[in-house]
Amino acid sequence: MYTETQIVHNNTKTTVDGALDGTGEMVINVGPQHPATHGVLHLVITLNGETIKKLEPHLGYIHRSIEKMCESLSYRQFIYVTSRMDYLSSHINNHACALTVEKGLQLEIPPRAQVIRVLMDELTRIASHELWWGAMAMDLGAFTPFFYAFRERETITDIMEETCGARLTMNYMVPGGVMYDIHPNFQRRVKDFITLFKSKIDEYNDLVTGNIIFQNRMKGVGKLSAEDAISFGCTGPVARGSGVKSDIRKLFPYEVYDKVEFDEILETEGDSFARYMVRIREMHQSVRIIEQLIDNIPEGDFQAKTKAVLKLPKGEFYTRVETARGELGVYIVSEGGTTPYRIKFRSPGFSNLSALEHMVVGSKLGDLMATMGTLDLVIPDIDR
Amino acid sequence: MTKEYFREYFTALLPTASFDESGEWLNVQIQPEQWRSFALELRQSELNFNYLFCLTCIDWKTHLTMVYHLSSTVHRQTVVIKANLNRDSPEIETVSDLWRTAEFHEREVYDLFGVKFLNHPDLRRLILEDDFSGYPLRKDFEDPINMIKL
User: Fold this and answer.
1) B128 vs A230: CB contact, 8 Å cut-off?
2) pLDDT one-digit tens code per residue, A209-236
3) CB-based contact (8 Å) between B61 and chain A?
4) CB distance B104–A353 less than 8 Å?
5) Domain range for A45
């Protein structure tokens, strides 16, 4: 992200370098805003010296109005669009939509499909956290970790490609189960990956977590109390970094999450380092879940039998799942037809972003990056 | 705390409210002018609904319906509050001071549905540009260039 000084408000008197007259304050824009870049966030920041006085996110550069598009798509079709929301958790987005449709149809999912879904979700979570870890370090000026993270992430995308046919927008989960059965190599390759990955997490810790410069930049920065986290609707690692129990997998278990053993990671400091540690420790838990399930995929169908045209009964259906970023809610209002009457995606990034101003006002501009990085924002998820 | 408990509690508070228990959670239909005092009660009484996890609007062509999904991190209970608004000049009190997340969500609803939130600290369009005309998520929104109808 680059920082550029320019005049933003026409109605405010500004000098050429962006300083507001008489206040000693300056307005700067942080972040690119070109639509060709895949997900960009534009922050307008009022600075006094180096201290942030006000921060205002400008959204909408990648707004596609997915909610409106879904109103004209059938219950099978709309799932594909949702891969493009939080593209790092596309499996989990698809999962949430499939679950909502299944809830409406009161469909039973074969056990095999349930286990495959959870495996895919957890692989996605690891891949997403890895990308976050690399990007986080890059935000702080360390370029090398990005390559370390992508080295392992690449293995996951290869596994996904083999089974789902896509590396990023998988569209693998469909109402009733999953689209195809897993590839014959799937179990072996996942096990190989897990063995490799467990040694690599220690490498990450050596490289970044234990670094004293890194810790000094992260500790005590971007504080968020538990009450504020709840009030701002923060979920996922952001809320858990402040000690709020918010893991949907534990609170409202879906699929086989109530049958596997894993811990909900909580840190209580509420600063950037706490949020960082939550994600690092969550990767271990995802590994734990995968290890329990990978040799225990039940035999049977991978998809329940469904009608060619799905019709949800009249009513309202709400499902929530835990994506890598937090609680994703899918709210479908059905009028009994083949398309949703209204659909709302309660995306985790949107609420997490709303807490950003509260977290950084009063701190230095340099701390903004250390805070924003730990929110793990995916902009298409915010804009939708 | 069960659906029946909430139902009795809310009936004592708002005798005119109607209830729908067919779904997963208790739905409470209230008048928009009752919303502010009701929200204060939900937030500050021992019910302690401190987590507003979904705030949205539905366009029913004849009227708009505001939908608030509220939950409590203490009791782990959920209720859904609904208020019907006039479609021509939709107005409802803000709750952004009770649940900070509402500030962004209300701006989004204002942007895409045109609902005016009274006493909101900063009610501007959030996603679309300031000079955009129309409210895209309303059912009668027309955009001949960008919208594909099936």
Assistant:
1) no
2) 888 888 898 888 888 899 889 999 899 9
3) no
4) yes
5) 3-58
